[in-house]
Specification:
The protein has a domain of 219 residues: NAD(P)-binding Rossmann-like Domain (Rossmann fold, 3-Layer(aba) Sandwich), CATH 3.40.50.720. Strands 3-2-1-4-5-6-11 form a 7-stranded parallel sheet, with helices on both faces. A two-stranded parallel sheet has the order 7-10. It contains 9 helices and 13 strands. The longest helix has 22 residues. Helix 4 links the parallel strand 5 and strand 6. It is an alpha/beta fold. Helices cover 37% and strands 17% of the residues. Helix 5 packs parallel to helix 7 and helix 7 crosses helix 9. The chain binds uridine-5'-diphosphate.
């Protein structure tokens, strides 16, 4: 008699999103069953359509701000649902607040009911416009609580507080990942974020819209590196927040020039006003992830941008 092996099941909210869909792929590759929940507000079924024939993959269209009732065993809840792009969360501030708070509560409630582990995808935005660079996990941040980004920043901060409360009060085995700027295939072309914006502008010969003087910095992590980090964190036993991101910091002007070079575009740069409360710098301190998860990004910005450019050329 062979050993009976029971497949593990992960419910992932926001599974049709950019990061979520890549994470569904990874879980299936690792031999898990996946229940993907998404309300398709910023996610797209196109991101998961290649999984529809897979018998270990189930898709449920549902808004996680409403309670989740799922039959059967669930071993892990990965709560990724979020309105994560500035242009979208500024357009949907109340939905953004709801998904970070009510959505996180509902997802935690499900984990509690199923006796499942729980992973919450938080964000570098919890650091706001940071006064220390790079940002370590023990930096408490510099967030404007009433600014236009507060709907996102504060709901993710509240989300982290909820996770810790369920962990402390109900003993749920939880993880928190603070995701820094991530890019790659399946980002929406009209997502508003800087990488798809610059690539689609460069490919169509339009001006690249650099906001402000372009001296603000971000650090861009390629999707495969991020997925590897989340997978490792999921399988660790560490319950406090962990930064995941690429620590190579670039100004937005440098990024624009690199995109122009890699697309061999004739586009030029134009300057537009800097959005309110746009953080001046952002760079992860990944000392903890290096030690705890033996993880660091492997894909250089040039290499990752080339793959992302190929994707945008193909769609
Ligand atoms: N940005 C830009 N041009 C664009 C879109 C964004 O210069 O067309 C800048 C934006 O002002 C910010 C940075 O690029 O400083 C990253 O913006 P994004 O919306 O990608 O994400 P954020 O890191 O601000 O959440």
């Amino acid at each position: 008699m062979g050993t009976v092996y029971k497949m593990k099941t992960c419910l992932i909210t926001g599974g049709a999103g950019f990061i979520g869909s890549h994470f569904c792929d990874r879980l299936l590759k690792e031999g898990w069953k996946v229940i993907c929940v998404d309300n398709i507000i910023t996610g797209k079924t196109a991101n998961i359509k290649h999984l529809f024939g897979n018998k270990h993959f189930t898709y449920i269209q549902h808004d996680v701000t409403k309670p989740l009732e799922i039959e059967g065993d669930i071993d892990y809840v990965v709560h990724m649902a979020s309105i994560a792009s500035p242009i979208h969360y500024i357009n949907y501030p109340i939905k953004t607040l709801k998904v970070g708070t009510l959505g996180t509560m509902n997802a935690l409630g499900l984990a509690k009911a199923k006796n499942a582990k729980f992973l919450f995808t938080s964000t570098s935005e919890v650091y706001g416009d940071p006064e220390v660079n790079p940002q370590p996990e023990d930096y408490w941040g510099h967030v404007n609580p009433v600014g236009i980004r507060s709907c996102y920043d504060e709901s993710k901060r509240a989300g982290e507080a909820l996770v810790m409360a369920y962990h402390r009060k109900h003993g749920i085995d939880t993880r928190i990942v603070r995701i820094f700027n991530t890019y790659g295939p399946r980002m929406a072309a009209n997502d508003g974020r800087v990488v798809p914006a610059f690539i689609t502008q460069a490919l169509s010969g339009k001006l690249l819209t650099v906001f402000g003087d372009g001296k603000q910095t971000r650090s861009f992590c390629y999707i495969s590196d991020l997925v590897e980090g989340i997978w490792r964190l999921m399988n660790s036993d560490y319950s406090l927040p962990v930064n995941l991101g690429n620590p190579t910091e670039k100004t937005m002007l440098e990024l624009a020039e690199l995109v122009i070079k890699l697309t061999a575009s004739k586009s030029e740069i134009t300057f537009k006003p800097l959005p309110e409360d746009d953080p001046k710098q952002r760079c992860p301190d990944i000392t903890l992830a290096r030690k705890l998860l033996v993880w660091e990004p492997k894909v250089s910005l040039e290499e990752g941008l080339k793959k992302t450019i190929e994707y945008f050329e193909s769609i």
